[in-house]
């Protein structure tokens, strides 16, 4: 994680290209997943576009923060939170992803009147989304309890993927001290918007390279206890960092995310 982030985006403004603008989770049991996150973060839900199957948008005090969709029953895909990166032209961004060694697995396609999307993976295999906003601008609240606070890509080493994201989305990258020697913060106009952390052999063999979403909470220890009581599973105990107290958990279907209570 890094201490500073880009300026807040007004509710009626599109996110600048390259900015993480939405986060979505595809699961096998949508209703049960709504119950878990509703109880954990205080989310409420309303229906969203159904191009990829049943889908709901999570609301925090009436503002959209995330999406939860239904995986096809005949496909056994990993259950994981996926960040979407803003684009002014999803088709052009998808083509650039392919040109730079990534893969486009879904789309680009229209999500009704909401916008246009694609789901891609970088050269390391980590999955992310591309979002070209129309009616749906993306997450309208961040860095408040119950909302996304930060997105970080975990890989074995940062060298190849940092170049990929810099080329595709125009990021400036800089070492993100004091998080470690192989940690890069991706900047837009001087503001860090996401991070890449090389963890070497500590990378999970089961998950491989992946994006990790941090959700802000008021009290990490209390939220961790609540998540486990609701059927979640502890992966990394709560510990203090320079940017707040952090813990990592998996929800009842195995989707991994982090809790943080003091993002600067």
TrEMBL record:
Q: Using the record, list the residue span of the signal peptide; answer none if the entry has no such feature.
A: none
Top-level taxon of the source organism: Bacteria
Which InterPro entries would you find in this protein's record?
Anthracycline_SecMetBiosynth (IPR052164), Glyas_Bleomycin-R_OHBP_Dase (IPR029068), Glyoxalase_6 (IPR041581), VOC_core (IPR037523)
Show where the VOC domain sits: 19-133, 147-262
Q: Do you know which Pfam families this protein is assigned to?
A: Glyoxalase_6
Q: Which PANTHER family match?
A: CONSERVED PROTEIN (PTHR33993:SF10), GLYOXALASE-RELATED (PTHR33993)
Instruction: Give the protein's recorded name.
Output: VOC domain-containing protein
């Amino acid at each position: 994680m890094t201490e500073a982030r880009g300026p807040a985006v007004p509710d009626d403004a599109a996110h600048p290209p390259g900015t993480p603008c939405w986060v979505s989770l595809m699961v096998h049991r949508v209703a049960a997943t709504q119950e878990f996150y509703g109880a954990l973060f205080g989310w409420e839900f309303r229906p969203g576009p159904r191009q990829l199957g049943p889908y709901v948008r999570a609301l925090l005090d009436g503002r959209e923060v995330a999406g939860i969709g239904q995986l096809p029953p005949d496909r056994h895909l990993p259950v994981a939170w996926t960040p979407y990166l803003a684009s002014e032209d999803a088709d052009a961004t998808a083509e650039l992803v392919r040109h730079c060694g990534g893969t486009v697995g879904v789309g680009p396609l229209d999500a009704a009147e909401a916008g246009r999307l694609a789901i891609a993976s970088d050269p390391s295999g980590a999955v992310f989304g591309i979002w070209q906003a129309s009616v749906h601008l993306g997450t309208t609240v961040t860095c408040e309890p119950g909302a996304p606070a930060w997105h970080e890509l975990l890989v074995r080493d940062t060298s190849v993927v940092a170049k990929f994201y810099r080329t595709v989305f125009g990021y400036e990258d800089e070492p993100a001290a004091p998080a470690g020697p192989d940690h890069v913060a991706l900047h837009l106009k001087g503001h860090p918007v996401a991070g890449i952390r090389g963890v070497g052999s500590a990378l999970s063999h089961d998950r491989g390279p992946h994006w990790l979403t941090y959700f802000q909470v008021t009290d990490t220890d209390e939220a961790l206890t609540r998540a486990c009581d609701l059927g979640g599973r502890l992966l990394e105990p709560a510990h203090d960092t320079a940017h707040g107290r952090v813990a990592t958990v998996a929800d009842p279907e195995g989707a991994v995310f982090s809790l943080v209570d003091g993002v600067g």
